[in-house]
């Protein structure tokens, strides 16, 4: 038994006799292909899951049994004649990579379940999907499932800093990856791969996008002994091979974050100019070396010209020059460059920067370059509008980047569910080509997809908060199929993680569903305000405590009003959207309330449609957010005795801290609003001392 949590792979015992009998008939005997590492991982998972679910270990066969009343068959049609006889081989061959078919069939008089796919990776996903159905107690006697992933690339971006065992913006503890001990493999690596494969994630970037730490800001800022760029050193790459093999076993391709200046940092060149022939040759030679060791490497993730990281601007080149030079080195190996669009610095409004930088370059990037775009134009705020780049670059492969780790939503303390936030972005209609095309429909090309900044760490809970595990699960499921509803994904997670007690399921589902809007209210006051938090040097306090006075340029508070004018009269951000969207945001009358102050600077006493003034709505939202968190805490308390004491107590204590912090946010923000506006809360509420 591991000392850390099993998350949603708990495999609780099935107690209903009729359900258990049905499952045993079709799953107690298993005929599983043995032709690949992925199939070996499948057999291992069945050995873990079926004894817990069914109360009996599986009986594995090397040939399809003829003397049992049913069995489970897993393999490709090419692997197993029995499967080729039971399903349409052409139907299986037509599935996309990762797709699978699960079908209840009768073979030689026996009731069988067939899990098949055109690739071994698809068999892994299909097996985990079947186990999910068993965990959810779904009927399987007439099963007929055909699934394909919506997106070809479903990546996690680890922000782990190698050799220090730390995670930037990670609130689940130190990194689980111990690079100094590689090639030795911890059992936890495999358990992590299992979690990712179970929700269909097929790629993992193993190190932080910040591969060079910015210069020290103070004498107390420790100097790192190692930097992420050192992973490209030959001795480090050799250690990396075992970790890559482990993830490969679960159908997950590894990626590396690399430093744009690696030819200088790792090599012996005196330049990283992307148009320099020696630089291009260095990248080509390094790619040959890496792929010789890890032939299925997915490619590189690169953060350039952003937050102190080097980039093509250092050489008066543009991002096409920088991305294409490295992509050229990866092309012979089938590798891809994921190039982050998070750049800023040349405009006083960060919101406009990504569009101004990348939209003019549409169509110039190599075919194996993906521009990775944050969901919004600022920086993973509790709420912000969808990035204007979605729908603006039809000739370029794009990837949507979201954040699982709760950098701006309470970090490892607050229960804040991000799926509703992501769903809002996925469903945002971009009006690409004049049509009402949602973001989710723009990412379906072979070089496109979604990437999530991971939230796991060494903590026993994996994520620092038991309820934050829901964000990891939800990301995988949404990346697989963004058409799944918030309700479906959430209930799946709750039932697999906390069991089938309907009171527990209903309560935790409600709690997660309502947590995001509560966070928006007490951390920003709502109405589209952003960056109200502390940005000091103390990492553990950074972006956690309220400090609106530190970021005045982002929320625009002044004596005459609040909000930032991003219309044509201001920074012009609204004009980056196609006309129908731009017009909606440009007008105060049509801009939705939830984004009003993101796009407009308005007087404190400006009246909203219901007659409430701006400042009063901000007061009300701050107080409402605290009251909602108190309500959610009370709802959690009703579960005492219905779930295990360890998890109950952990979340209860986290909720106590969240309520205290929400009160702190409310008091700081309402005082700030009152100080600038000179208008008191009409309901006479004051901060608690």
Please summarize what this structure is:
The chain has helices at about 15-25, 35-55, 80-85, 90-95, 120-135, 185-200, 235-250, 260-265, 275-295, 320-330, 355-360, 420-425, 470-480, 485-500, 500-525, 550-555, 580-585, 595-600, 615-635, 645-675, and strands at about 30, 60, 70-75, 100-105, 110-115, 145, 155, 160, 165, 205, 255, 300, 335-340, 370-375, 395-405, 450-455.
Give an overview in words:
The protein is of the alpha/beta class. 36% of the residues lie in helices and 11% in strands. It contains 20 helices and 16 strands. The protein has helices at residues 17-27, 37-54, 81-86, 89-93, 120-135, 187-198, 234-248, 262-265, 277-293, 319-330, 353-358, 419-426, 469-480, 486-498, 502-524, 552-555, 579-586, 596-599, 614-637, 645-677, and strands at 29-32, 59-61, 70-74, 100-107, 110-116, 144-147, 153-157, 160-161, 166-167, 203-205, 253-257, 299-302, 336-340, 369-374, 397-403, 449-453. The strands form 3 sheets. An 8-stranded parallel beta barrel has the order 7-10-11-12-13-14-15-16. A 6-stranded mixed sheet has the order 2-1-3-5-4-6. It has a two-stranded antiparallel ribbon with strand order 8-9. Helix 11 (353-358) links the parallel strand 13 and strand 14. Helix 2 runs parallel beside helix 5, helix 9 crosses helix 10 and helix 15 (502-524) runs parallel beside helix 20 (645-677). The longest helix has 33 residues, at 645-677. Residues 216-225 have low confidence and may be disordered.
């Amino acid at each position: 038994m591991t000392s850390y949590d099993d998350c949603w792979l708990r495999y609780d015992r099935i107690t209903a006799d009729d359900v258990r009998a049905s499952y045993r008939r079709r799953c107690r005997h298993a005929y599983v292909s043995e032709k690949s590492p992925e199939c070996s991982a499948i057999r291992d998972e069945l050995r873990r899951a079926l004894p817990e679910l069914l109360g009996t270990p599986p009986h594995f066969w090397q040939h399809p049994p003829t003397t049992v009343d049913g069995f489970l068959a897993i393999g490709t049609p090419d692997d197993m004649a029995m499967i080729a006889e039971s399903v349409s081989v052409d139907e299986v061959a037509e599935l996309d990579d990762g797709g699978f078919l699960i079908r209840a069939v009768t073979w030689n008089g026996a009731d069988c379940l067939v899990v098949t796919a055109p690739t071994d990776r698809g068999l892994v996903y299909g097996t985990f999907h079947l186990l999910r159905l068993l965990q959810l107690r779904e009927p399987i006697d007439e099963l007929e499932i055909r699934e394909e992933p919506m997106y070809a690339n479903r990546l996690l971006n680890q922000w782990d800093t190698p050799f220090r065992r730390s995670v930037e913006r990670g609130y689940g503890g130190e990194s689980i990856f111990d690079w100094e001990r590689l090639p030795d493999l911890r059992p936890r690596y495999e358990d992590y791969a299992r979690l990712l494969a179970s929700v269909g994630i097929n790629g993992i970037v193993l190190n932080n996008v910040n591969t060079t730490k910015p210069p020290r800001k103070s004498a107390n800022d420790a100097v790192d002994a190692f930097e992420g760029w050192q992973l490209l050193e030959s001795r480090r790459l050799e250690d990396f091979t075992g970790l890559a093999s482990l993830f490969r076993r679960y159908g997950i391709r590894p990626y590396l974050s690399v430093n744009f200046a690696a030819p200088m940092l790792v090599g012996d060149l005196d330049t990283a100019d992307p148009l320099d022939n020696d630089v291009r040759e260095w990248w080509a030679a390094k790619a040959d070396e890496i792929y010789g060791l890890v032939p299925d490497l997915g490619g590189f993730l690169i953060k350039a010209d952003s937050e102190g990281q080097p980039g093509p601007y250092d050489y008066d080149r543009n991002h096409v020059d920088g991305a294409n030079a490295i992509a050229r080195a990866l092309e012979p190996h089938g590798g891809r460059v994921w190039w982050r669009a998070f750049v800023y610095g040349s405009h006083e409004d960060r919101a406009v920067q990504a569009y101004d930088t990348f939209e003019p370059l549409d169509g110039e990037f190599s075919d194996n370059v993906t521009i990775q775009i944050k969901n919004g134009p600022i920086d993973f705020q509790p709420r912000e509008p969808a990035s204007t780049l979605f729908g603006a670059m039809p000739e370029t492969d794009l990837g949507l980047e979201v954040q699982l780790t709760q950098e701006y939503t309470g970090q490892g303390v607050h229960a804040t569910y991000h799926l509703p936030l992501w769903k809002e972005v996925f469903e945002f209609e971009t009006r690409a080509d004049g049509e009402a095309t949602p973001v989710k429909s723009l990412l379906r090309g072979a070089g496109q997809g979604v990437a999530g900044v991971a939230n796991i760490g060494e903590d026993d809970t994996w994520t620092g908060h038991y309820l934050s595990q829901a964000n990891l699960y939800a990301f995988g499921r949404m990346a697989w199929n963004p058409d799944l509803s918030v309700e479906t994904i959430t209930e799946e997670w709750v039932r697999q993680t906390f069991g089938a007690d309907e009171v527990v399921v209903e309560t935790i589902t409600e709690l997660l569903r309502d947590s995001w809007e509560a966070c928006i209210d007490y951390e920003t006051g709502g109405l589209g305000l952003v960056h109200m938090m502390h940005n000091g040097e103390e990492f553990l306090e950074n972006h956690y405590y309220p400090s609106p006075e530190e970021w005045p340029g982002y929320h625009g508070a002044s004596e005459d009003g609040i909000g930032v004018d991003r219309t044509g009269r201001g920074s012009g951000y609204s004009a980056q959207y196609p006309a129908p969207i731009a017009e909606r945001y440009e007008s105060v009358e049509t801009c939705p309330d939830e984004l009003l102050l993101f796009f407009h600077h308005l007087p404190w006493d400006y009246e909203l449609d219901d007659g409430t003034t701006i400042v009063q709505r901000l007061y009300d939202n701050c107080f409402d957010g605290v009251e909602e968190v108190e309500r959610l805490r009370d709802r959690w308390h009703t579960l005492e005795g219905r779930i295990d004491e360890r998890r109950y107590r952990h979340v209860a204590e986290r909720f106590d801290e969240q309520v205290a912090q929400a009160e702190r946010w409310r008091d700081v923000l309402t005082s700030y609003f009152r100080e600038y506006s000179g208008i008191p809360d009409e309901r006479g509420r004051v901060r608690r001392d």
